[in-house]
Design goal:
345 residues; mainly alpha; Arc Repressor Mutant, subunit A; 48% helix; 0% strand; DNA-binding
DNA sequence: AAGATGTGCAACCGCCCATCT
DNA sequence: GAGATGGGCGGTTGCACATCT
């Protein structure tokens, strides 16, 4: 049984708001506030609108100090950085950008930033493909194929091949076409920055530092972590930055192509995963967008705490939209715990 | 000039969760 | 404790406008 509708839909006006309706709503709220009850509000003012619709109109349009359009590059970067760390939690991202609404940011992301990013990726892919082709011709190897020719994306980890007879938990989607995962990977690779210099920020000598190389976004990320995690996570960034240099360094050999990107972060993440694969399989799920089979015992440790992580999902792309929050928290927990573990030695 | 296609954005939908009764 | 209610949120849709052919 579904729940009762919040308003009588037959007697409720839909569609664009007229200036008169805007004026009514605005003047009432400015004088009396919302009264803590959006559902009753339209009746009080004599508006034939759903309470939710009023709330949305107020929050997204009528509220004072709302900015529309004209996103700055700094805002772009903040959005991208936060998208890496928390995913599509638009309300939280909006909270970090004064005057911006979640709806605005969501729209901006969907219509512009995402395309901008994908365009950037295509450009890089073309360059890589050209280089690979050139190298291949040089070597003259018979078995050479350009990365895309055999479905291997040059940027991402090699995805485990689907096992024969394994049930497909979701309508199969080409992992490379999973926009959400794709974009997050790409953002991570780009160091969380979308605009500005194409050259990645240098991470030389830096140690487990979040890819954001500008203090503002660093601070924002910290805030985000604080928002989501228990008090213990608050010291995450400090703990990590206090670690001795090279604590996490490795050459990245044998790691995913992602780890060879400009940002150090994926490499450090890989370090942790390699140093403690059992505990950190979930991170692979999250960051690589695929489940990871536990070798040997046939179980998947991530399954113990994930709602979607059945055995079938272990070989197919995970529905990141469903598990993202959990995995993000898991990532933070694991990173913190790992960092603490390493500092204690 | 006109139709087709693309883009941006406001608004709606439906779900989840916290609170109330 | 269970159901009802409202707030909040992310995803999606629909429409107006812009651009292309």
């Amino acid at each position: 049984m579904g729940r009762a509708p919040c308003c009588d839909k037959a007697n409720v006006k839909k569609g664009p708001w007229s200036p008169e309706e805007d004026a009514k709503l605005k003047s009432y709220i400015e004088k009396h506030g919302t009264g803590g009850n959006w559902i009753a509000l339209p009746q009080k003012i004599g508006l034939k609108r759903c309470g939710k619709s009023c709330r949305l109109r107020w929050l997204n349009y009528l509220r004072p100090n709302i900015k529309h359009g004209g996103f700055s590059e700094e805002e772009d970067n903040i959005i991208c950085s936060l998208y890496i760390s928390i995913g599509s939690r638009w309300s939280i991202i909006a909270a970090q950008l004064p005057g911006r609404t979640d709806n605005d940011i969501k729209n901006y992301w969907n219509t512009r930033l995402k395309k901008k990013l994908l365009g950037k990726q295509r450009k890089e892919q073309q360059v890589r493909r050209a280089c690979a082709l050139k190298q291949g011709l040089k070597k003259g190897k018979e078995d050479f194929t350009a990365p895309d020719a055999n479905n291997q994306n040059p940027y991402w980890p090699e995805l485990p091949a689907p096992m024969e007879g394994m049930a497909v938990p979701y309508p199969y989607q080409d992992p490379r076409l999973n926009d959400h995962a794709l974009i997050r990977k790409l953002l991570i690779k780009l160091g969380g920055r979308l605009s500005g210099n194409d050259q990645p920020p240098s991470m030389e000598g830096m140690n487990l530092q979040w890819p954001l190389d500008i203090s503002t976004t660093e601070r924002l990320y910290e805030n985000t972590i604080n928002m989501f995690s228990s008090a213990s996570i608050n010291s995450f960034t400090d703990t990590c930055s206090s670690l001795p240099n090279n604590q996490f360094s490795r050459n990245g050999a044998g790691l995913s192509p992602m780890s060879q990107g400009p940002s150090n972060f994926p490499m450090e993440l890989s370090d942790m995963i390699y140093s403690n694969p059992h505990r950190l399989e979930g991170l692979l799920d999250c960051y690589y967008g695929v489940g990871v089979m536990n070798e040997g015992n046939g179980t998947n440790s991530a399954d113990e705490s994930t709602s979607w992580g059945n055995i079938g999902s272990s070989v197919y792309p995970s529905p990141l939209s469903n598990c993202e929050g959990f995995h993000q928290e898991m990532l933070q927990e694991c990173l913190l715990s790992e960092a603490k573990h390493m500092t204690s030695h």
